[in-house]
From TrEMBL:
GO terms for molecular function: CDP-glycerol glycerophosphotransferase activity. Pfam families: Glyphos_transf. One of its GO terms (cellular component) is membrane. InterPro entries: Glycerophosphate_synth, TagF_C, Teichoic_Acid_Biosynth. Keywords: Transferase. It comes from Planococcus maritimus. Transmembrane segments: none annotated. PANTHER family: TEICHOIC ACID GLYCEROL-PHOSPHATE PRIMASE (PTHR37316), TEICHOIC ACID GLYCEROL-PHOSPHATE TRANSFERASE (PTHR37316:SF3). SUPFAM superfamilies: UDP-Glycosyltransferase/glycogen phosphorylase. It comes from the Bacteria. The lineage of its organism: Bacteria, Bacillati, Bacillota, Bacilli, Bacillales. Signal peptide: none annotated. This is CDP-glycerol glycerophosphotransferase family protein.
Length: 395
């Protein structure tokens, strides 16, 4: 679950030991019986206030302040929380972070307890037996087979609940992940509460391009990355003359959201921005994924979890599966990438061009696979946060 999410050695072992020891001792003097319960919430490695975890945090802050004090854990290297927009924000790795962890009644994490809630948790998890730990997920599982690292094993065993978007995901986590049924709860995904379902656009004017990451690319040198199929396929789309002419002649804006792990290669992408053809790169210091999902009419992607949001909204999706064979061999998918996709499948850049031409010619502004949505998503009522809070916390 935590494949190279954070660089090794970031947290100084001695400092962590001293903070944990002091926090554990001091926490014994606190009693929470008469006050609000304490919930620690985190996601996206503390680097962004996005996704399921942040939506659930907002829900608790806005609806249950008398019953629960909900804290958000953030990466101290970032400044999004310090500007005051995130209530009850606590820096990861701080003494207060460790103290709150030992006092917490609940934690909710999107990726890993280790990176979202409390650094080095796998080293001292046995000291905390009281906190109810819930994994709220990053996206609906299916595209990526789980990778379990050594440090993940105690965390998975210690986790009390794993929320699921649907019966489909419940069965996947039970049968493929080996999670006991009593730990699985079907509450729906908090982030879907942000939208009304079935909101297809009236016309195609904005395309969001999001390509996810492959862990085998992480340690490549600059030269190796520039020769990779991933890089060449991505820039090939932006350089394709036919695609550029389609964008220009139809007044379509193509917004590209680079994966955070591509930050060190950003200089090789940014020259491809071109206002004349409506090609621009998004800066998530200025906007958000949530806003991008709402504002864009079509998604062009490989296997990003944002595709589930577009399906929920009944917006068209083009799946660019340029490395399907390699991906299947190296990582694998629970979905059949030939049969289970809920959008147009394109294996080559030319296929993407032909698909866009077809969509524009036939004025397609809805997802022709929208009928598959309820195979993967059980709830469309914007009460996912409410169900999660009730099921885990009884509020």
């Amino acid at each position: 679950m935590s494949v190279t999410l954070k660089e090794k050695g970031r947290w100084d072992p001695l400092k962590v030991f001293l903070k944990v020891s002091a926090a554990f001792v001091l926490s014994r003097f606190y009693r929470n019986a008469n006050g609000p319960k304490i919930a620690l919430i985190g996601g996206n490695l503390g680097e962004k206030y996005e996704d399921n975890a942040s939506v659930f945090h907002k829900y608790l802050v806005n609806n249950h302040t008398e019953q629960v004090t909900a804290y958000w854990m953030y990466d101290p290297a970032t400044d999004y929380a310090k500007n005051g927009r995130v209530p009850n924000a606590v820096p990861l790795g701080s003494f207060r972070n460790y103290l709150l962890f030992f006092r917490a009644d609940y934690t909710f994490h999107g990726h890993s307890l280790l990176y979202d809630i409390v650094p080095s948790a796998d080293k001292f998890l046995n000291l905390n037996r009281r906190t109810i730990i819930t994994h709220v997920s990053h996206g609906i599982e299916g595209f990526k087979k789980i990778l379990i690292q050594k440090e993940d094993v105690p965390l998975l065993k210690r986790t009390d609940y794993f929320n699921c978007a649907s019966r489909y995901e419940y069965e996947l986590k039970r049968d493929k992940w080996g999670i006991p049924e009593e730990k699985l709860v079907i509450t729906g995904f908090p982030r879907f509460d942000r939208y009304l379902p079935n909101q297809p656009p009236k016309e195609m004017k904005r395309i969001l391009m999001m390509m996810t990451w492959r862990e085998w690319l992480f340690d490549l040198s600059k030269e190796e990355f520039l020769e990779s199929n991933y890089f060449r396929s991505t820039i090939g789309l932006l350089e394709h003359k036919g695609i550029r002419e389609l964008l220009k002649s139809n007044g379509i804006q193509l917004q590209i959201a680079l994966h955070p792990f591509m930050k060190r290669f950003e200089e090789h992408f940014s020259p491809l921005a071109d206002q004349d053809y409506g090609i621009e790169f998004l800066d998530f210091n200025q906007t958000s994924i949530e806003r991008s999902i709402e504002e864009n009419d079509v998604l062009l992607t490989d296997i990003t979890s944002v595709s589930w949001d577009f399906l929920y909204l009944n917006k068209p999706i083009i799946f660019f599966m340029f490395d399907q064979q390699e991906y299947t061999e190296r990582r694998g998918s629970y979905l059949d990438l030939d049969k289970d996709l809920y959008g147009y499948k394109s294996s080559t850049i030319e296929d993407v061009y032909q698909t866009l031409s077809y969509m524009l010619e036939h004025n397609i502004t809805h997802n022709e696979w929208y009928g598959k949505a309820d195979e993967f998503i059980d709830y469309f009522d914007q009460d996912n946060c409410k169900r999660l809070a009730q099921r885990v916390m009884g509020v």
